[in-house]
Amino acid sequence: MTDSARSSRGLTRRPLLGLALLAPVAAQAGEGLASVLAPGARVETLYGEGAWCEGPVWVPALNSLVFSDVRRNRMLRLPEGGRPEVFRAPSANANGNTLDREGRLVTCEHRTGQVVRREGDGRLTVLAERFEGRRLNSPNDVVVARDGAVWFTDPTFGIVSAEEGEPRPSEQAGSFVYRCDPDGGLAIVTRAFRQPNGLAFSPDERRLYVSEAGAALDATVPREIRAFDVADGRLTGERVFARIESGVPDGIRVDTEGRVYCGAGEGVRIWNPDGAFLGLIPTEGPCANIAFGGPDGRRLYICAGPRVLAVETRMRGAGLHG
Q1: 8 Å CB contact between 300 and 65
Q2: What is the rounded CA–CA span in Å between residue 52 and residue 41?
Q3: Which CATH number fits the domain that encloses residue 25?
Q4: Is 282 among the domain residues?
Q5: How many CB atoms lie within 10 A of CB 242?
Q6: What are the tens digits of pLDDT across the range 221-262?
Q7: pTM for the whole structure
Q8: CB neighbourhood size of 257 (10 A)
Q9: How many CA atoms lie within 13 A of 311 on its CB side?
Q10: Distance from CA of residue 237 to its chain's centroid?
Q11: What is the span of the domain harbouring residue 96?
Q12: Rounded-to-integer distance, Cα 193 and Cα 148, Å
């Protein structure tokens, strides 16, 4: 069955952008977010029928948000001003998504342990599957740099949970962050994490942020985001950028002025580039991943459990492709 043939199955039609989930965010989040959110900004529910929504990415060629519903083994598409459609099912328990420099969708698959690229005709090209002859764990989140290299995290969530993949023993010595060269060469760029999760570059791509999500499986693991200096495809200068008191840091995005946004606990936490905490955009239930998008790149999409939310911001997301 084709993607388009599946598009109307298993979805309840409902109006979009019609339900204000919260009171005005700026009133709750504090004055620190005045540079990010306009007065009276509201978080609205776009979709509320998922199992565990993840990996949002704005795809200009489709004028749509594409996201994963990991535990229902499918990806969905929300057209601007339209209604939800199934984009790909089954999806190999797809999680994180991004676009490459040519606007092609790059996706992390839990079930297969692969990072794949969707070509213009819908075919999937495998970009990464094995390291030193052994299967990857369950690639989770992914970004593409200006030079075309694909950077991704590889925790074990998809091989320890039948809900999110297919349980099997890990073939790797740990959970690492990888860089896949445009020519296909794959290298570990850091081994410093128990369960690396979200990642994002600063606007100039001289800094990489990575979230440590090991607390999801072991409460003793620090709940933190780390920063690295980036040069010639290598990472140096590891340091803690931010710590959170509750929840688990997940997806990360950065705006064009370098502010860092992370889905963590019950909301989106935001910091200045120097690590100063600005405030929280609260969500009802755990917040996973986030993405900037919309026609002007200023809408912040938020995946929070069964829901996909959106709030209009003053800022544009950094590194938007396509």
Answers
A1: no
A2: 25
A3: 2.120.10.30
A4: yes
A5: 20
A6: 999 999 999 999 999 999 999 999 989 999 999 999 999 999
A7: 0.92
A8: 14
A9: 28
A10: 24
A11: 3-10+21-312
A12: 24
